Every structure is written in structure tokens, then in C-alpha cells.
Amino acid sequence: xxxxxxxxxxxxxxxxxxxxxxxxxxxxxxxxxxxxxxxxxxxxxxxxxxxxxxxxxxxxxxxxxxxxxxxxxxxxxxxxxxxxxxxxxxxxxxxxxxxxxxxxxxxxxxxxxxxxxxxxxxxxxxxxxxxxxxxxxxxxxxxxxxxxxxxxxxxxxxxxxxxxxxxxxxxxxxxxxxxxxxxxxxxxxxxxxxxxxxxxxxxxxxxxxxxxxxxxxxxxxxxxxxxxxxxxxxxxxxxxxxxxxxxxxxxxxxxxxxxxxxxxxxxxxxxxxxxxxxxxxxxxxxxxxxxxxxxxxxxxxxxxxxxxxxxxxxxxxxxxxxxxxxxxxxxxxxxx
Length: 336
Prior knowledge:
nucleotide-binding, about 325 residues, 8 strands, about 35% helix, Rossmann fold, eight-stranded mixed beta sheet, alpha/beta, MinD, ATP-binding
């Protein structure tokens, strides 16, 4: 004969208060979650994670630091993409809703207006402002596509600068932009000329942040390391790096240094990695920056992500790529 004895007795333990109206297993205890997080939903974990990611990308970045932020984009070596970075990062910041003034500090070889398609609208420059021939607002060229983006050129091609123009004059110019009647911009981006001569010293004088553009080759890295030391000597401690023209196929074939190797060599925070893209030449010739292309290109998306990190003073982390047939050390690029 089978016994119907319950192996799990329901008699409460003596420690429980049976006279209370609260059930034996009370729900008064609530787990503590931080204010920024919500309790997880165990029945739909994948859906909740996916929704949180979408909200993260759809939000507007939070502007960090005191405004206006004066950022100089430099490299030391010519032809690594400083002007292209200035144009695309500047317009990306404008598309995110921030007011931007881009200053082309390359006096003799002015090219930023060409990349932005504004070469026919530059009537006055900083030289005319200093000579009293025009006002500062007349020298600022407002972009028709994004009204919160403005371009300011120091001089016209084939023109001579005053002998007294230097770092103090550029500091005065930045102070004038900060105190103008229509309000100071959120970002003042300075396109630095190549080299480390007087033009470089002039461009970095008013800046408190720097973006160092480099490519993964030995000559560019040597110049970037030299420029990093000069920036630190000038008092600029917030230095971030953009690695331009990266080709993953050459990295896997050990014909190009990886981004991780570049970061270990320079010791700088990584702001962005820009892949090699043939669309850069087309956009340069058309005067139409990459970030405005539809559909967007890989390089354009990388510039937008770099601008996002610049707003929040964030950085990215380089990852190691698998190499075949075997991984070699960094000194293998020097023949070791």
C-alpha cells in the first residue's frame, strides 16, 4: 500500500510569526540596483540588451570640459591626413549639434577651404582683420549645409603675413572668438601646418588639447613621437591619437604595423582608427567631406566615432589581430 506522506512538510518554523498578516515569505526585501540600471528581465534578456544598445547610439554625446575647447590637429609629418581629419571631425561635431570654428593655420599652403568646398566664399582673412580692413564676423565663412560650422583662414595663398604675426596674434584671435556677441563656439579646431617650425609653434600656442594624426609607418611615427614631446613641453597634456590609412590585409601579412604596436610605441590614448578608403580622394576633389556621404563609407563612420569620443573626452582600445603564419615582435619591422 502506497503512503501519501508529504516529504516536504508545510509546518512553519518556530521563528516565523504566524500571527502577523505578512505571509511567511515576505516580499518586503527588494534587491538594490544602481539608479542608472534597471532590474534585468530574465524572460527577454537578448531583447533588453539590444534595446539598451540602440538607446546608447541614439543619444546625444555629453560635452565634457570647459567650453570653448581649443583643439589643435597636428602630426609633424606632411601628407598623413591632418586637413582631412579637421574637415571631417569638424563637420561631425556640427552634425552632433555643437558650434564649431575651424581655423586653417597653414599660412602658405591653405587647403582646408578646398576640402570643405568653400574656396569661392573666402573673401577676407585674419590678415585683413588685423589690418582693420574688415570685422571678424566678415572673415568667418559659414557653411550652408550646417550653419553652426564656420571656417576662418589666416591668409590668402601667395600673400605675405605681417612680421609680427605669431602665437600672440593667434591667441588674440581665439580670445576674440570666445568673446564675440553671438556667443563663443563649443569647439575651436586649429589645422596645424606640417613641420615643427614657426608655423607649428604659432598653431599650438592657444590650444589646450591636441589630436595627433599618424599613419602606421616608421617615418610618420618618428615625427609623431617628436611632436608629442614638443606638445608636452608647451603645456598640452591632453593628447590623443588618430591612426589613419590602416589596412588590415597588410597587418595580417606583417607588412604594416598594427594599431596596438603604434599605441605601444607612442604611448598615447587612441581616439580613432581610420581605414584606407579610396573615397577620400573622390571627396577631396569634390569638396564634399566623407561624413556627408550617403550611404556612409567606413572611413566616414570612423571619423564620426572619433568626433563622438572627442566630445566626451573618451578613448578606444586597440585589439590584437591574428597574424599568419606566426606572430612576430615589434622589432621585426626594423629587421630584427
